[in-house]
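S1.2 Input.
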Amino acid sequence: MANTKSAEKRNRQAHKRNARNVQVRTTVKTALKRAREAIASKDPAKAREAVRMAASALSKAKSKGVLHAQNASRRIARLSHQLHAIVGATK
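S1.3 Output.
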């Protein structure tokens, strides 16, 4: 337990930030799950939209400092690679 006023304040701030970060991480996880499912369904139109939404969620998480920049970039690249694999196969 915090012993000083400043420590109590830091504790409150940490709880607020943690709640915000959990919300952003959950949004990212859901977007990634939907993108992977869309890619697995091999429907190019649905997959394109889902990957676009996931990339947007990852970029937002990166800009808010929830995800490390390279982590977000790597995930976007992997999704794009999987998307192009099914889009190229359907042409």
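S1.4 Remarks. The chain has a mean pLDDT of 95.
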